[in-house]
Amino acid sequence: MGFMGAISKDGLNIANKSREIVKNKIKDVLGGKINDFNEEEMGIIERVVHATADPEYAKLLVFKNNPIVEGIKAIKEKKPIIVDVNMIKAGIRYDNVKCFIDHPDVFEIAKKEGITRAVASMRLAKDLIDDGIVVIGNAPTALFEVIRLIKEEDIYPRLVIGVPVGFVQATESKEELRKLNISNISTVGPKGGTPVAVSIINGIIAYAKKGKA
Amino acid sequence: MGFMGAISKDGLNIANKSREIVKNKIKDVLGGKINDFNEEEMGIIERVVHATADPEYAKLLVFKNNPIVEGIKAIKEKKPIIVDVNMIKAGIRYDNVKCFIDHPDVFEIAKKEGITRAVASMRLAKDLIDDGIVVIGNAPTALFEVIRLIKEEDIYPRLVIGVPVGFVQATESKEELRKLNISNISTVGPKGGTPVAVSIINGIIAYAKKGKA
């Protein structure tokens, strides 16, 4: 399969043409700052702009503490990926992806403790998050809970991709994530979402399969 | 469950605060044009801006041929929803959603005929698309195939939500969709994607459950 899962000639032509346009849009947005990113980071930025048709993401993505190399290592070790919503699970090309948002215990915990289902789902996944990969593309509260687990309960994920979307708490949750000493990829401001999350983690999985890092 | 599936007090507070901000952002973007939309359309616009944190969508969404009323009717009749990618299927709160992109026949047809998997998946779904609802959030070629089925093969979907994303063919495919005499919802330009598609169709499903129209 070619870029973005294309198998037909039409599919490949579209993917190649799109890639060309995406590269140029990123150049326009980043200007001289394009040299701030290494080749692997640029590959991830391209995927996100491709998935959203929104070149602004080139300015919004932040890579902290060597996240791509750490992510590739964790994928090669077949570590689990814990996600906040099923849409992300459906988009990731990897066998070991876990989402607890619809787990019966999550409904119970959320109601009883007055927390969001997203928070409850991360709390339930605690043992998998330790030494695993976390991908959050929807709920800021889920990201805050992961940050709390790291700070208060000595949970140490190998990589956190934190790109929750929205005007309430999303910006703040990602700022807190970037202060941590763990490997993370995030966006600045309210933008983010499931296609952003999925394109980042699928990019890292693709690198791992190609034997990068 | 409250707005956006919130069940906890925290979840409801976030959802309500977010809704407030979203409404204001939409007002800023639309100005006087806010009166161009009816209450149900505004509800859909709010969901899309909520899902993307991108208020520009208020200017990009187009409703043609009474799509919300037609969509609600089709949902109440339990018509199937045919989608282009599994991420959309995972996000829709409805029992009868079909996605053929990973169907073995689709790989065969795509390779043999030199078409994209997305096109092959729509061709395979032809009989379900007739009198059903189509939701396309990723592949412009899938939307072009649906348009071809409508024009050349007398297939008549009740509603087409066409919001494929990308810099190649997405804009053009949506322009062609808007020329048709069927009920449709689309975006102007390259932007769109799975969260846009999912929030539109889930909004219509929510209306149908509340007994609107």
Automatic annotation (TrEMBL), chains A, B:
Name the Pfam families for this protein. CbiC
Q: Which residues form the Cobalamin biosynthesis precorrin-8X methylmutase CobH/CbiC domain?
A: 14-206
Would you say which domain of life the source belongs to?
Archaea
Q: What is the name listed in the Swiss-Prot or TrEMBL entry for this protein? A: Precorrin-8X methylmutase CbiC/CobH
State the pathway, as annotated in the record.
Cofactor biosynthesis; adenosylcobalamin biosynthesis
| UniProt keyword terms in alphabetical order | Cobalamin biosynthesis, Isomerase
GO BP, one example? cobalamin biosynthetic process
InterPro entries, alphabetized: Cbl_synth_CobH/CbiC (IPR003722), CobH/CbiC_sf (IPR036588)
Give the record's family classification: Belongs to the CobH/CbiC family.
Its Gene Ontology molecular function terms?
precorrin-8X methylmutase activity
Q: Which organism is it from?
A: Methanocaldococcus vulcanius (strain ATCC 700851 / DSM 12094 / M7)
